[in-house]
Amino acid sequence: MTNQSIPVIINGAAGKMGREVIKAVASAPDMMLMGAIDTSGEHQGKDAGELAGLSEALEVPITNQLEPMLGYVAGERQLAPGVIVDFTHPDSVYDNIRSAIAYGIRPVVGTTGLSPEQIKDLADFAEKASTGCLIIPNFSIGMVLLQQAAITASQYFDHVEIIELHHNQKADAPSGTAIQTAQLLAEMGKTFNPPQVEETEKIPGARGSLAEEGIRIHSVRLPGLIAHQEVIFGAPGQIYTLRHDTSDRSCYMPGVLLAIRKAIQLKSLVYGLEKIL
Ligand SMILES: NC(=O)C1=CN([C@@H]2O[C@H](COP(=O)(O)OP(=O)(O)OC[C@H]3O[C@@H](n4cnc5c(N)ncnc54)[C@H](OP(=O)(O)O)[C@@H]3O)[C@@H](O)[C@H]2O)C=CC1
Ligand SMILES: O=C(O)C1=N[C@H](C(=O)O)C[C@H](O)C1
């Protein structure tokens, strides 16, 4: 660790993703973990390293004091610019990002559930503050590749639906990844799924949620799942299915570390891992 190391705060440190990020940051030679924030009552004061399952303590206690931590890292002028990684909850992520930018700490955000209006507002705020901010709906390289394949396929198929499948602790639906995938296809400039018949939903929601440009998203929540997505294209006589499966949350860590390194170079908001690869 040197003064050139990137100071990192993890918000949501006691959660499923937060614990993975603790391990990843602790093993990155160019980063130092300076703070571990979590509102969960049962973990206050515990050592972040021990909570994440490391054999040695990191001497970084879990605390719920976000603003004092932002102020402390912002005040460490001899260090590189600070970064806060956010894997918390859709209800708090907007305020977390605004607070971090106000202190000049760069947010790297994995938490989903932000509305397009909130993302626009945050982009304006980051631009005015000349502060880097990354909002990444999915940090896995496999999902970026799936989305690129889907963009290619969408040039040749007019019919497509998305199925996303997640563990049943997930707060938001549809997933941030499915929404982003639909947005990327919608940017191709065509309307998908022209109606073939007049449909009636006998049970509301049977046909899933209607995202941009006629693309439907179906959300499955079950114990035993982690994070999975299918993009299914159909045409007369053929089906083309793209599928990504997460079997371990460590798959997100190369993307998280890349985003932390990128965040200190940026002066505005970037949305999507594909923009920094
Ligand atoms: N972009 C990506 O690649 C990925 C994104 N995600 C997203 O990340 C988010 C977190 O996922 P996951 O780790 O599975 O969720 P968890 O519920 O396991 O972890 C979230 C943690 O944050 C805590 N928390 C909640 N609110 C706050 C707050 N305001 N301030 C600080 N801590 C808070 C929770 O405490 P408590 O339990 O007490 O509420 C919990 O410990 C979700 O939005 C998920 O969709 C997940 C995986 C990959
Ligand atoms: O909650 C999760 O687990 C995940 N959330 C993100 C999303 O909503 O897309 C990313 C990944 O699917 C895992």
TrEMBL record:
Q: Which UniProt keywords apply?
A: Amino-acid biosynthesis, Cytoplasm, Diaminopimelate biosynthesis, Lysine biosynthesis, NAD, NADP, Oxidoreductase
Dihydrodipicolinate reductase C-terminal domain segment(s): 142-277
Tell me where in or outside the cell this protein is found: Cytoplasm
Query: Record's SUPFAM superfamilies?
Result: Glyceraldehyde-3-phosphate dehydrogenase-like, C-terminal domain, NAD(P)-binding Rossmann-fold domains
Residues given in the record as NAD(+) binding sites: 12-17, 110-112
**Example GO molecular function term?**
4-hydroxy-tetrahydrodipicolinate reductase
Q: Which InterPro entries match?
A: DapB_C (IPR022663), DapB_N (IPR000846), DapB_N_CS (IPR022664), DHDPR_bac (IPR023940), NAD(P)-bd_dom_sf (IPR036291)
Catalytic site positions: 166, 170
Domain of life, source organism: Bacteria
Biological process terms in GO annotation: diaminopimelate biosynthetic process; lysine biosynthetic process via diaminopimelate
GO terms for cellular component: cytosol
Q: From the UniProt record, give the pathway where this protein acts.
A: Amino-acid biosynthesis; L-lysine biosynthesis via DAP pathway; (S)-tetrahydrodipicolinate from L-aspartate: step 4/4
Catalytic reactions of this protein: (S)-2,3,4,5-tetrahydrodipicolinate + NADP(+) + H2O = (2S,4S)-4-hydroxy-2,3,4,5-tetrahydrodipicolinate + NADPH + H(+); (S)-2,3,4,5-tetrahydrodipicolinate + NAD(+) + H2O = (2S,4S)-4-hydroxy-2,3,4,5-tetrahydrodipicolinate + NADH + H(+)
Residue spans making up a coiled coil are none
Chief subcellular site?
cytoplasm
Q: What is its EC number?
A: 1.17.1.8
Residue ranges constituting the Dihydrodipicolinate reductase N-terminal domain according to the UniProt record = 6-139
Q: Which family does it belong to?
A: Belongs to the DapB family.
Please give the function described in this protein's UniProt entry: Catalyzes the conversion of 4-hydroxy-tetrahydrodipicolinate (HTPA) to tetrahydrodipicolinate.
Name recorded for this polypeptide: 4-hydroxy-tetrahydrodipicolinate reductase
Taxonomic lineage of this organism? Answer: Bacteria, Bacillati, Cyanobacteriota, Cyanophyceae, Nostocales
